[in-house]
Amino acid sequence: MTDFPQTVHFTGTNTPVGIEWSASNLEVTGTIPEEIDGAFFRAVPDPAHAPMFEDEIALSADGMIAKFDIHGGHVDYAIKFVETERYALEKAARKALFGRYRNPYTDDPSVAGKDRTVANTTPVWHAGRLLMTKEDGLGYEIDPETLETLGRFDYYGALKSQTFTAHPRIDPVTGEMFFFGYEAGGLASLDVAYGIADKHGNLVSEQWFKQPYCSTIHDFLITERYAIFPIFPTTADLDRIAAGGPHWAHQQELESWVGIMPRYGKVEEMRWFKGPKGVSAFHFLNAYEEGDFVHLDVCLSDTCAFPFMREAGGVDRAQQDVGGGLTRWSFDMGKPGESFESRVIGPPGDMPRIPDASQGRLHRKGWYLTINPQGGPPVLGGPVGVSFNMLLQIEPSNGRIEALPLGPGMAINEPVHVPSADPEKEGWLLTVVDKQVGENRFDSELWVIDAGAIAAGPVARVAMPMPMRAQVHGWWVSRQQLDQAKARREPAHAA
Ligand code: V55
Ligand code: FE
């Protein structure tokens, strides 16, 4: 009854939904604390059309922007497709016109030169502006109230990079957004653009540098003084792409690198440190400085976490045999040399979170997702193909771990963190939890969790009346931020 391939990319929690809907006053079980007041935006990839090729992957699904609007203990929800150029062209044609993931050589000739991005990875809020981002293109600006797409965002023509990361970093003190784009100069190019937007959302700097090889730079880091670029050996090759092959292949024998430069400095000041061979990471918990040292906490794998990137590189490793752990890399900026220290500080996992106020500073606690060994076979779905089913809290200073394990048939999406006004509290985590109730059928709930007492489980749950597809990343925006942005968009009219 479906044109979609019956692979893990289109079944389980990746079963296409593709419905734009909204509902007010969802049913709340328990009590949502009054101080949770704002919007939880979510990026939900969902393919509007069956793909051109049977081997299409979940990362290519059209971006949907979803919003939980929470106020006074009440919850409204809405979700809409991001109207990218690609989405609009395919919607008009009523079929897929764009071919394989990040491979324009496989497209229908009618869309040659058109914007291929699906804006499906992270909703980014900065300076009152909401962008839906994916690292292969520029972000698309979204109206935070209506979720309508306003258009591709290039800082009014100022940004020269062809790409914009799904993982910019915002300094909580200066309000600046630090970001980058790789393949900035075109498909499989070595060009990386490094940019800074000021607290008003104006582009104030853009510099380009070359990375050692064309790697997927998914995330990067800032501290108070530095910008940090990790280079892992999952690489693009133009000849392979031109032959219709996969964009990425993992090269297990190749070194990794970490580039560290003064965050307000010149890219020529980049210092390159040499890391272990074959490792990779998609996300970092945080980085901070301690004297001359820069510490960064990385969700490290001993290979690449994505099965199709391993396969393309001839790496023969089953998903359950992927090793790794939350790892602290420490760089002594006061000494010359290209080596650094590494130690494992927590279990393997991904989708890390810290309070926004700790960005680039010492983080006392962090949260991330992992696999519960007692949770039964993992639910299939999500970008990697297997879902997480346990939430962890880590205190890096003492290694203490707390866990919220979920039962069989359950999956947990990346949480957002909501700060608390009470200095005794750790704030709140909001996350969508899915429970399998049939083949490719799930009941989903929004969970509100006390971030300082995760093992106690949710303090409130919100049952979702419709099927939900797996989320990638989310972003919390406070009511104050939303109201300020609204006032800027709609200057006060005389009554
Ligand atoms: C990731 C996600 C993407 C992508 C590349 O989480 C990497 C990693 C949802 O799209 O295109
Ligand atoms: Fe990511």
From TrEMBL:
Enzyme class: oxidoreductase
Stored InterPro entries: Carotenoid_Oase
UniProt keyword annotations, A-Z: Dioxygenase, Iron, Metal-binding, Oxidoreductase
EC numbers: 1.13.11.-
Record keyword NADP present: no
Cofactor: how bound: Binds 1 Fe(2+) ion per subunit.
Keyword set includes Mitochondrion: no
Cofactor(s) annotated in UniProt: Fe(2+)
PANTHER family assigned to the protein according to its UniProt record, in alphabetical order: BETA-CAROTENE DIOXYGENASE, CAROTENOID 9,10(9',10')-CLEAVAGE DIOXYGENASE 1
Family listed: Belongs to the carotenoid oxygenase family.
Protein name: Dioxygenase
Organism of provenance: Novosphingobium organovorum
Native organism taxonomy: Bacteria, Pseudomonadati, Pseudomonadota, Alphaproteobacteria, Sphingomonadales
